[in-house]
Amino acid sequence: MRLLIPLAALLLCGISLAVENLPRTADSAWCQRGLCRFDQMYEAAAAGEISPAQVAALLQQDSNNPDAWCTYAEFQAMRGKNTEAAAAFQQALALAPEIPSVAMRAANFYFTHNRRGDEFQMSTRILALTRAFDEVLFSYARQSGLPVFSNKVHANLPGGQQADQAIPALPRPAKAWLHWMIGQQMPQTEITSVWSWMRARHLADEESAMAIVNEFWRRKDYPSAREVWLEWRAEGRAQRGNSRQLLNNPDFSETPRRVPLDWNLSSSTTVEITRDGDGVDVRFPGSGNIDFRDIYQSAAVTPGRYRLAAEISSEGLTTDQKPFFQILDTESPNRFHVESDPVPATATHAILSLDFTVPGQTRAVNLQLIRLPSTKFDNKIEGHLRLHSIRLTAR
Predict the structure, then answer these.
(1) Which domains, and CATH codes, for the chain?
(2) Across the beta sheet with 324-329, what order do the strands follow?
(3) CA torsion angle for 259, 263, 267, 271 (degrees, to 10)?
(4) Which residues have CB under 8 Å from 313's CB, separation 6+?
(5) Per-residue DSSP letter, 80
(6) Is residue 5's pLDDT more than 60?
């Protein structure tokens, strides 16, 4: 009796090894008796290693499996029988309408065989279900040469779906499509078109607006970056009527956004920067000879006269090197560079102003609060500076 268990285990192991090496064709006697693994048969069918009759046998054995229908469809497509392939994919989708992997196999066929309508319908279905296939679907859509989205709604389609769109009018896929376009360095006109579509369909958000602004600024299209940002921000929409004022968030009333057209207020380990609804506090601790450049904003400009007006208060600022404002050309600081007077050691709601002329080649400037290291023995700066507002206006 003690030998029965090891013998049984050995027998089961032998049977398992035999099954591993069985013929994988679905019409073989072994497979028809249920002794073949379906994954083996699917792999053989997908590799084109079996005949049409064998693929048909596979369907007979597993007719309710959408993957079996996909395998059959792909097999037919490899043989050039596209009508049969399309019908098989429809059967697979009928069995599994909400399984993204099945829909993606159908989409691969539709896009690679130029089946207009089916390809975009499948793309919108998948993108609405999952983000897993974003990259490949976006590539398909871009390479198809067909309209990717449309503002024309077709009432006869579910949910107002558009017959000629690959990207569904839903927040997640729309934003993912925009970020993919930016990441792929697509033409700016196409990115702008996507952004306009998103805004018209109420799909836009601030993250997407910031992505576009940062990308346009990186491409050195400063006017377009500013226009997008002004359109997006509520304060920007009001400000558009006053094109003379070039700085956003001039009184620091809102949390700065991560774009060049808003404030950078990054506190260092040696200088404390805090913002409230009425301004920004800068505290120098008196512990070092600090090189400070941590408050700045960029602005798009055209040649002409400008005025910087900063309302500030200060208390007990020490050393010969006190903070001042610097404005310089974003692309080439040597081309244009001006500086304000230093901040007074003590002042209450004083206006520090600077009039200057932007030269012809300058298209964007950086405005920065700076404190340079002192060369004196007593060089550790201490004191408090408050920025109530900073405005840059065309004259």
Answers:
(1) 170-243 (no CATH), 264-394 (2.60.120.260)
(2) 264-265, 292-300, 364-371, 324-329, 337-339
(3) 150
(4) 347, 348, 349, 350, 385, 386, 388
(5) T
(6) no
**This prediction's pTM:** 0.81
**Tens-digit pLDDT profile for residues 151-189:** 554 433 334 444 447 888 999 999 999 999 999 999 999
Q: Output phi, psi for 168, to 5 deg.
A: -70, 150
User: Strand locations in the chain, DSSP E?
Assistant: 264-265, 272-276, 279-285, 292-300, 304-315, 324-329, 337-339, 347-358, 364-371, 382-394
Q: Residue 244, Cα to own-chain centre: how many angstroms?
A: 32
Phi-psi region of 187 (alpha: psi -120 to 50; beta: other; left: phi over 0): beta
Residue type, 82: N
For 213-251, b/e burial (b = at least 16 CB within 10 A) is bbbbbeeebbebbbbbbbebbeebeebeeeeeebbbbbb
Give the list of residues 6+ apart from residue 102 with CB closer than 8 angstroms, or none.
66, 67, 70, 92, 93, 95, 96
